[in-house]
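Quick one - first record:
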Amino acid sequence: MNFEIFREKLNKNGIELTDEQISQFQSYLLLLKDEAEKVNLTAIKDEAGIIEKHFFDSLLLAKSLPLNNQILLDLGSGAGFPGIPLKIAFPSLKVTLLEPTVKKARFLAQVINQLKLREIVVIAERAETFANREREQYDIVVARAVSQLNILLELALPLVHLDGFFIAYKGAKAGEEIQDSQNALRILGGQIHEIVLEKLPTESDRRAILIIKKTTSTPVEYPRQYGTIKKRPL
C-alpha cells in the first residue's frame, strides 16, 4: 500500500485526510524507518507494510466509533499505534500515550514534536501505577497487540469512566480471548458492546476490534501489580 491508496481506502471508510495530514503520516513513516532498529519499534520495516499494517489498521476503529473531542488513552503505545494515527486523522482528540519503556517514550515525544501535534502527551509509566492516579478519567482507552484480553481488561477498565469504552485490537483468536475474559468483564465492570470484524486490503488475516463498554465502576482493588495480573488473571 502506498499513500495514494491509503488515502483512497480511508475515503471509502469515511475518513478524509488533508494534504497536511498525509504529510504528517509521511514524516511519521520516515521517523519509524530511521529509529526502528535503534529502539526496536516494529518488526515491519517496509514502507507498504507500515502504511497498511500500522497506519491503516490503526484507523479501522473509526468505522465503528465516532471520534470527535474525546479524551483518549493509548495503553502500551509502543511505536505509537494506534494513538498517533488516530490523533493525526482526528486532531480534536485529546490523546495520552502511555508507554513504560523510556526509549520508546522518547521516540513518541520526538514524533509529537516533529509532526507539531497538539493536545497529545507521552507518559513513561506502568499502567497499573498510572491507573491508581488517573482512575476513570478517559472516554476511550485503546490497546493494540499488547497482551491477552483478560490481562488488558484489568489494566484498561479502571482508567475508563462510566459509559466510556475500552477498545482492544485483536486477531484471529479474539473469540477465544473473549471466552477466557468473562470473569474479568464481570468483576471489572465491562460489557462487550460490539465486535467488529475487518480485513486489511492485501492481508488474509482477519482483524477483530473489540468495543467494550464500561457499565459499572471497577472495584478499587484493581488493577493489581502486573506480576500478579499475569500470574493470576481474573
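second record:
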Amino acid sequence: MTTYNYKYLIIGGGMAAASAAQSICEKCKKGDIGLISREEYLPYARPPLSKALWKGERTLEDIDLGTGNLGLEMHLGRTVTKIDAYNHKVYDDQDNEYSYLKLLLATGGTPKKIPGVDVPGIIYYRTKADYIKLKDQVDKNNSFGIIGGGFIGSEIAAAIKMYKPSAEVTMIFLEDGIGDRLFPRSLSKFLNDYYEEKGVNVHPGEMVSNITKNGEFFIVKTKSGKEFKFNTVVAGLGIKPNIELAEAANLKTQNNGIVVNRYLYTQDMDIFAAGDIVYYHNYILREDLRVEHEDVAWTTGEYAGKNMTGAGLVYDVLPYFYSDLFDYGYEAVGIIKSDMDILEDWKEPYEEGVIYYLEQGKVKGVLLWNVWEKVEDAKKLLAEPRTFKKEDLKGRI
C-alpha cells in the first residue's frame, strides 16, 4: 500500500474534475492537490467526441484540457473503492490510501446498457477510447446501427454520415421521433424526415429485443419482428450516475444524484460534488435539478473548486447546452422537456425559430433553433419572476 496526503483530492477525470482542478490550483501550491481517475487519459473535452472531431475541426491532441500542466498529482487508471469520511481517507483498487482535507466527487456516469443484451463489441459511446474505436470502425466498415434517438444517438448518426457519406447509417429508437423527449412533437417528426433525406435510415417506435453476433456482423432484432445486420453497433441510451461511493459513505442522494447545497458541498462540509452527479436547487428556476451537460459540468466544477479553497460562492448558473444535427444547430437554456407547455415561435418553420417551455405561465426553458447570439436574452427572460401568456412571448427573442 502506498499512502498519499493531499489538502485537496478530486475523484474523477472528466470536465468537472478538470475545471475544479484549475480553480483550486489558482489558490494552492504544488503538491496540495491530487486527482484519481479510472480513465487512462488526462482530462479532455467530451463534446467534440460526437461533433468537432468528426468534422475535422478539432484533433485528439487539442481536446486535452491542460490539466496535466497544472502541477497536481495525477493517478490515472485507478478506481476508488471506498471513502472513509470520518477519517478523511480514500482507498483505490490498488490498495492505495489517500488522505484529504477537502474532497470533490466528480465521478460522472456509466452508459446505460441495452436491456437483456450481453454481447461483446457494442460501443456504448461516451469516452475518448470509444471515439478511437468507432473512428477505426468507420474507416474500415460501412454499416452502422445507432441505438437511441436522443442527444448522443442523433449526434453520432449525423457525425458518421457527414464524415463518411457512403456509410449506411440506421437509427433505431423507442420514441416516435428524434429528440422526442426534448423537442415539440412537430419538430421531432420533422427531424425523422430530415435525417432520411440526409441518407440515414430512421426506425422510430422500435425496441431492441436481442442482439447476436454472426461472424463479423451484429444481428439486431426488434420486438416488432424487424431484423438488421450491421458491422458496428453504437448505443446512446443515457447514463447511470456514479453515486455508489457517496451512498456507501452515507451521503444524501436523491433522484440519482448527490444532494448538495448552494455552495456545492454535501451534508459533510468537507466533501463537495460537481458534474453529472450533482442534485442541486436552481434558485433562478426554483427547481431541483440534475443536469448531464458540458456547461453544468464545467461551471459546477469551477464553483466547487473555488469553494473548496474558501471562496463561498453561491452556484446560481442556468443550465445551458447545444448541439449540431447536420446543417441545423441549436442552443438551449433552462429546462427543456417535450411534455411541458410549449410555444413554438417560428420565423420559418423548422429552419429558424425560438421555442418557449412553460410551467404555469413561468418560462422555464428556451430553445434557440438556428438562432444565434441570443443566449443572454434567454437567460434574462428565465430570470424574470413574472408569468406570461403565450401571446406575450411571440417575438420576445
